[in-house]
Amino acid sequence: MQKYTAFHQAESQEIAPLVEGELVDLAQDPEAGATTAEYGIVLLAAVGFAGLLVVILKSDAVRALLMGIVEKALSTGM
Fold this sequence. Notes:
It comes from Rothia amarae. The protein is 87% helix and 0% strand.
């Protein structure tokens, strides 16, 4: 039991400065990680927009419109 207590005390003394260091860093820069969160939100918005675009482009009306544009562009040159 005494060995465990000595180990536990040594371990807690090593960890304590790390925790205090992180708290100091957060106090100095309260917006730490905000950029990462913003990138995450932009990524989710882009994925949502891409999903919506896929649904729209799979519709028959849009497909016919796009095919008409492509056929007209290819037939004009000849």
